[in-house]
Amino acid sequence: MSLFLTSDEVSGKYNSRSNFSNSISPDFFQDSPFNISLKEVYFDPNFPSLPFLNAPHIITLVDPNRHEYEDLSEDIRDRRAFTTLFTHDNNRQVHASLKIDKDYIEMLDESRTEYEVHHRLNYAICISSLKDVNFKSSSEVVSFLNKYMFPLHSTKPLIYEEKIQKLTILSKFDMFFSQSLLALLGLKSVRTAQILPLVNFPPVFDRVPEEIQMAENHRDSLARMEEESILYRNYRQMTRHDLKCEMIMHYRCNGVPSRVSIEIIIKMFEAKKPIVFDFDKHFQYVNKTLRENFLTSTISKTMDYVHFTRSDILVFKNTWGRVIDKVIQMNLGEWGGLITFQSQDTSKMIVPFHNKQNLDMVQAIALDENLSNSPAILQESFNNIFFATKIEQIEFDETLCTLYGLNKRLIFNSDSDEYIPLDCNYFRCARRELEKSFDHKPYSLAPATQGDKMENSNMIESVFRTERETFHFLKAGQSYGGDEDINLACNDPKLIFVVGNFLQHSLYGSRQEKIINFFPMNHKKDDLLYHNFKNPICLNINQEPNFHIKLLDQNLRPLKAGVGIPTLLSFKKTSKKNMFPVTVVSSDAENLKLYPQNSSNCFTNKLSFPLIFADRRNWTVSLRCIAFPKLCNITPKNCYIDLKEITDEGEIEMRVVMEASYISNIHSLVAYINRSMEAVVRDSFAPSPSPKFDVKNEKVVLSTNNFICILSQPLMLILGMTHSFLDNLVIYPEKVVIEGVAKPELFLYQPKEIIAISNIVEESFYAQTRPNILRIIPVRNQEKSLGSYNFIEFQEPDNIKLAIDRIQDIEVKLFTRKGDFVDFVNENDVKIQLEFKKKQKGNDEVTWSHPFLP
Fold this sequence. Notes:
With 854 residues, the chain is of the alpha+beta class. Helices cover 20% and strands 31% of the residues.
């Protein structure tokens, strides 16, 4: 007998296509006990192209130090908050008012845009969010987003060439895109950090914009700001403490390496004054501190080996003060010993003291003071400080690096007398120090500090996350091209789980769920999704008057299904024994706490209770189905390029390694390789532009420029630079153009099967080895497969014998035939459904039962 459950029946409450109840007639249970299985699913896959996941879609950052006032839209330029923001001075005396401006920008009922201007920290953020939106075409996506999501931009950042279906993003402001929006636009993050900081945004569409009710009287302006933003509660705490920084000077004196550590005290936060920082006063203090530490250290070391008398010390004291005063006057009142921090107009710099010009003037001072006839202690100290010493490098702590815009270590060229320019930025440092005072980054500060850190990045990089979204940084002035076409279905669920209240629990990761079954979303956007379970799970049924069904996504979250055809599920009564399915999940949250090293190709699941098999020899396990992400067709092992540039100073060698990724068209692969080469060449400080790949007439063309290029043999085959695998490396000389000889084959090195290894099954024989093989899984061509998930359902069970009689930890490893871990794309996880059976011999039949559950 069949049972059909449909979402268009109303059972005393509202039913939706993904959450519905059906009343069940008592006659349905008249022949109980029986089991039931889900045979067919009819579902309309109408999902929003851009879902709202309780987080913004776009955050725009405005920093007057990097962005221009003229690039703001006319409406925004008319707002006093932004006019004031661009009048703050970050030069010698830093001015900033104690004020926050917040407002909403009315755009559309489906959207919400608000901005915050933090004058004290010199930045503004604009947060744009959309409710679930469904787009019909690529051009509609671009025009809608440009119109409603970028109110700060005078020139909209999305550029779409419809004829060739190419999207380019070019913004005058730093931006942060959510993962769902980035995927919709066909872009992907090149670099993903292992651990991203969690940022919690306030509710967007649930709260009503209203004026903040504040007390009329405040003890100061900062107290008013504390009511408006949590940032300034910590800001006040920071005003009560000075920052202690460290600078370590490495130098040589008479050829002997020496070092001196100097503590620098900085008052970074000011509670009342409009002048928050004075670089002139700061440099005067730093120079004095450096000078006194250097002089004290050098003179002390000199006195250790030079003989002197009491009268020598008197002469030293009388003469030394005049000498130092003259040296300070010689440097226009500033001298820091080994180096000097200087401000000239709008420029700030570090100037090494021991250059030819300064030493000539010091020599004149020595003649003027007649030091040649002075005591040995004075002559030796003078020589050690001014002539026998040379600065080699300086180490700065993180705070000073941020304040001065320097790397951790500053190395001086012994043959160069040039000054070193500083990119001093008080606001950048203040924001970073304020961020350190929080355990969790505030949403209003995270974009500003991340924008500071990513100032030199030219790639799309993930920077922080919410509970359900990941945000990626796009730098102002940098052009980003789509790696894929605009994909209106990219945010659809990858898998759909059917959950019912009327069936037994099954094990899912670290917990128990009433999962009936699950199926993939491999479909075309406007077609009705039909899935037939060829090997359905038979489950015990509970006698409930109402059968409640929920359809969940791959993370067991409710589906965001729009208006569409009602859902229909077809069940079958069966007399078959009930099955006992166990689903192991690579990204299970609780198991990640126990096994933080879990990944999609190697993971362990601790079940919610152990499975006890008293007569283990009669028990078997089968892999019923597996859902796994697309396999990377570009891997570091196969795809790398060695570059060499010959310059006047010598050879510069570097290796460009492609990170594991899934790329489905040659234009995207060429763009990715070019970006990777540009980044490596830039980081290696090579003087010439990097080599460049291009595509002409469906073949790859390489311009080597000034580099000698050596491509890995697999990469040559993938790009069509050769017809066959070469035994020897091909060296392409500089300044040549090489055209490919064959059509590129992007999926040539994609694994064709996956070997699943598990600790719970007995050993098998694989050539000369004995691995615990659970199953060998065929992999279809990833270029032709629909959707982001591969879903393989096995009709015939393998019935592999168990290796252990008590199972609580199930370990799974997924290898290629070559013994390497399988490289999956990183946005999805792996789900494997196992079925345990016990063989019971009767007269002429074999039956199965589930294990004892303690």
